[in-house]
């Protein structure tokens, strides 16, 4: 069995390949990346593959039995990009596709993100290729990367209100992908993947306070004010307003999931928030 990984030099892709090498021989893994020279440290074969260039995808996917299609990060272009990969996979004779989608993509209020994932899920189902859909929730790292700034600024800010967040570490999602890629009985399944324990941003601020011994409150801001604050921190305006809008969706329940399918797939509890905060504070 040969397994191809798109986006292999990204943060999730690198973790998947590292964990795959502990399960199967490195010669059975192919990193599919825009620039193969940047994948030299992965320890596996690398092929040029670009979601936007169908003309090179056929060659990139030749001989691949199972494909992990890690979703593109180019919001607004992903549906077409993913369709390019799926069509190339059909031509290349790929036998199975595993796709990283969005938590509860069919009903989430995060429509600006979900529409493209829903389109790709529909394309997969119409492709005739056996598939598995991994609907990944938020990465805990989306929040813990702001821990240092919160400590420096004296508060953790956001627009998520009392929305509960069932995030998990990126490594947990990578391990779930490996379990599906190397396991059996996953064809046609859609998994809603999220952390075992939900928390609010106020809970996160309280955990930061507990571990630092400082009073770091959570300050809930109106969406526009939060976006302006993010711009002030140096984020591009478009990205800042997207992040603020995602927080509003969080307040509406977009990131809460208590089915614990992720921990069942990986055979252990997901990383707790306290451990993630401790790592961010090191």
Plain-language structure description:
This protein has 282 residues and is of the alpha/beta class. The chain has two domains: 3-136, 3-Layer(aba) Sandwich (Rossmann fold); 144-149 and 154-163 and 196-257 and 271-281, Alpha-Beta Complex (UDP-galactose 4-epimerase, domain 1). Helices cover 45% and strands 14% of the residues. The chain contains twelve helices and nine strands. The chain has helices at residues 11-21, 54-61, 78-92, 111-127, 141-144, 147-153, 170-182, 201-212, 223-232, 237-251, 261-266, 273-281; strands at 3-6, 29-33, 45-48, 66-69, 96-102, 131-136, 156-158, 190-193, 218-220. The strands form two sheets. The protein has a seven-stranded parallel sheet with strand order 3-2-1-4-5-6-8, with helices on both faces. Strands 7-9 form a two-stranded parallel sheet. α4 links the parallel β5 (96-102) and β6 (131-136). α1 crosses α7 and α9 (223-232) runs antiparallel to α10. 45% of the residues are buried. The mean pLDDT is 97. This is SDR family oxidoreductase. Residues 7-182 form the NAD(P)-binding domain. Keywords: Oxidoreductase.
């Amino acid at each position: 069995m040969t397994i191809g990984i798109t986006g292999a030099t990204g943060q999730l892709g690198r973790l998947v390949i590292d964990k795959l090498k502990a399960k199967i021989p490195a010669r059975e893994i192919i990193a599919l990346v825009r620039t193969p020279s940047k994948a030299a440290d992965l320890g596996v074969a690398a092929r040029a593959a670009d979601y936007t260039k169908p003309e090179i995808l056929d060659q990139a996917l030749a001989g691949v039995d199972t494909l992990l299609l890690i979703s593109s990060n180019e919001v607004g272009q992903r549906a077409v990009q993913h369709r390019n990969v799926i069509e190339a996979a059909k031509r290349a004779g790929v036998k199975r596709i595993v796709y990283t989608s969005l938590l509860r993509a069919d009903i989430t209020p995060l429509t600006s993100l979900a529409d493209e994932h829903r389109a790709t899920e529909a394309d997969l189902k119409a492709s005739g290729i056996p598939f598995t859909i991994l609907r990944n929730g938020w990465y805990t790292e989306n929040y813990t990367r702001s821990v240092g700034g919160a400590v420096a600024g004296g508060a953790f800010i956001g627009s998520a209100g009392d929305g509960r967040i069932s995030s998990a570490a990126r490594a947990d999602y990578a391990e779930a992908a490996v379990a599906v890629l190397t396991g059996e009985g996953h064809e046609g399944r859609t998994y809603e993947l999220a952390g075992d324990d939900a928390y609010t941003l106020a809970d996160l601020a309280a955990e930061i306070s507990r571990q630092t011994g400082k009073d770091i409150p959570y300050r809930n801001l109106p969406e526009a004010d939060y976006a302006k604050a993010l711009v002030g921190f140096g984020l591009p305006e478009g990205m800042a307003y997207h992040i603020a809008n995602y927080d509003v969706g969080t307040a509406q329940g977009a990131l809460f999931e208590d089915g614990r399918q992720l921990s069942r797939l990986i055979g252990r509890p997901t990383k707790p928030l306290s451990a993630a905060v401790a790592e961010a504070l090191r």
